[in-house]
Amino acid sequence: MTIQVHLDRLLAERGMTLTELSERVGVTVVNLSVLKNGRARAIRFSTLTALCEVLDCQPGDLLSYRQG
Question: In the predicted model, what is the mean pLDDT of residues 39-66?
């Protein structure tokens, strides 16, 4: 996969658990885990927006492109 997800780093920097993020964003822990582990095939803009709002970040802080 050439899109990297930096959810682990952002959670650690904010001292937040995946469960807490799940509750605040309104997305199941299972779905966030799929995203965190790089197994997601897509992400809704509404989910991306909610993640950025809760984590106080920009989409580029959460996702990056690595040339393969």
Answer: 96
Q: Over the Cα atoms of the chain, what is R_g?
A: 11
CATH number of the CATH domain containing 15: 1.10.260.40
pTM, rounded to two decimals: 0.92
Domain that holds residue 61: 3-65
The count of structural domains within the chain is 1
Q: Residue 58 pairs with which residues in a beta bridge?
A: none
- 36 — alpha (psi -120 to 50), left (phi > 0) or beta? alpha
C-alpha–C-alpha distance, residues 48 and 59, integer Å: 7
